[in-house]
Amino acid sequence: MIVVPVIPSRRDALESTLHSMNLAAGKVDPDNTIIPFAQFSTLHTARLVILQANTGDDIRTYGWQPHHWQVSLALLGDVDGDATEFLAQLAVVAPSGLSMIFRHCEGYSEHQGSLLEFLKAHERRSAATYVNWIGRTVRSVSEDAKLQRSLSDALPDIVESAGRENTRHIRQQLLDHVQHEVHAGRLSLISDARTPLRYRLLTILHLVGLPVLLLVLSPLLLVLAPFVLWRLRSLETSDPDIDIRPDKRHLSSLSAIEDHDTSNQFNVFGDIKPGVFRYALLKVVMVLVNYTARHIYRRGNLGRVRTIHFARWVFLNGNRSMYFASLYDGSLESYMDDFINKVAFGLNLTFSHGVGYPRTRWMIKGGAESEQPFKDTLRRHQLPSQVWYMAHPGLTAIDMARNARIRRGIEVYPTDDKLIRDWLADI
Predict the structure, then answer these.
(1) Which of 359, 361, 357 minimizes the C-alpha distance to 379?
(2) What are the helix and strand counts (H, E) for the chain?
(3) How far is CA 297 from the centre of its chain?
(4) 277 in Cβ contact with 235 (< 8 Å)
(5) Looking at residue 354, what DSSP letter applies?
(6) Is 131 helix (H, G, I), strand (E, B) or coil?
(7) What whole-number distance in Å separates Cα of residue 279 and Cα of residue 273?
(8) Neighbours of 100 (CB within 10 A)
């Protein structure tokens, strides 16, 4: 994620440049001449978002003056492999396009170093990230989708000639079909490169390190727990209610770019509730969210929610504000309902520290359970992506999981007929 302040007098020109990358509202040209996203073989998703503090005045209800936030441009990408390597490739492939974009931002024309150095100087690390399926690459998603379509096209004729009950023969005929298509160059089933040893070691260290740290600190945490709970509850009961309906023009700008595909982008930006205690508590929550996303919810499920491809939480504005971005399947209404009905406590844990969020009880109850105030709050804090790209339009997270199962069924011999029937049902 790259974040650069926008020169106020150049904002309109910047928006015009960004809109020129789209075929229509909410539909990027993947081969546009500014940033040709389709040329990057490791890029899952990307977006360009103008970050502005639409709800900055809400903090006045706490007796605080609004924090200064200069309108900024954010460039985000979800990529396979090392982020720095991707930025280097980006700087090589699209130098003139990036220059067209960043010349509207502060510090670019005066920057003396390389384009890569400029990008790295404005990089912002996530406090927490979620990946639907860690290890699933752009290439494997593409290969799995082509395999599924090829098998689906071949299956009817094979079933007709072999008979519906002869499942083992059907499977063998499908395997012969795949072998023929691979030999003809129409299918590719290349195994992904092994995860680098350094990353695997760091993952193990992270997996073990946090529980060990919590165990070491447990006596101190037990002593602090009563104070933390008392302070939390006293702040929750005094939180002001900010129940404001979103502006119709704002809603129109959001809906104009939504539901053009099976997946949608989502951005929210707002202030963290005042005080060191709220920030410290949110920081701890982010550590726990990042841990569970990396080690527990790493295979297509985020607490029974299966529709999210990627998500990230980023502290901005001197840690006084937070930005959240996600890519999800379906409509926004179904996305919000999914969380409210299945993991409202998770929403409360991560978002209840934001100004304007409905009141919670003990950080897990209330909040998102007040459905309409919660939805109004999210819509008021939501920002449209001026540009957003997805490498595999039309494929949901559930589709990708199914396609991966189909590929495993090619590579691993099923032990009984039921497993073969289940595999054929996926096709």
Answers:
(1) 357
(2) 13, 12
(3) 14
(4) yes
(5) B
(6) strand
(7) 8
(8) 19
pTM, two decimals, is: 0.92
pLDDT tens-place string over residues 189-225: 988 888 888 889 999 999 999 999 999 999 999 999 9
Tokens representing 414?
């099923």
Spatial CA neighbour of 62 closest among 375, 319, 347, 357: 357
Residue type, 131: V
**Phi, psi at 189, each rounded to 5°:** -130, 65
Q: Are 101 and 72 in contact (CB under 8 A)?
A: no
3-state helix vs strand vs coil in the chain, percent to 5: 50, 20, 30
d(CA 345, CA 285): 12
Longest pairwise C-alpha distance within the chain: 76
Name the one residue in this structure whose structure tokens are 């069924």.
409
Say whether pLDDT at 236 is over 90.
yes
Mean pLDDT of the chain: 93
What is the distance between the alpha carbons of residues 174 and 82, in angstroms, rounded to a whole number?
37
Contact 71, 134 (CB under 8 A): no
Q: What is the token pair recorded at 85?
A: 């390597």
Torsion-angle region of 84 (φ positive above 0: left; ψ -120 to 50: alpha; else: beta):
alpha
Instruction: Give 24-80 as a DSSP string.
Output: ETTEE-TT-SSS-GGG-TTEEEEEEEEE--TTGGGGGGGT-PPPP---EEEEEEEES
Give tens-digit pLDDT for 322-381: 999 999 999 988 888 888 888 888 889 999 999 999 999 999 999 888 889 999 999 999
Count CB atoms within 10 A of the CB of residue 384: 20
C-alpha distances (whole Å) from 362 to each of 42, 217, 221, 290, 350 are 42, 22, 17, 21, 13
Q: Across the strands, what pairs with 265?
A: 327
Q: Where are the beta strands (DSSP E) in 243-401?
A: 263-271, 308-316, 321-329, 360-361, 365-366, 385-390
Residue 269 φ then ψ, to 5°: -145, 130
Question: What percentage of the chain carries pLDDT values higher than 70?
Answer: 100
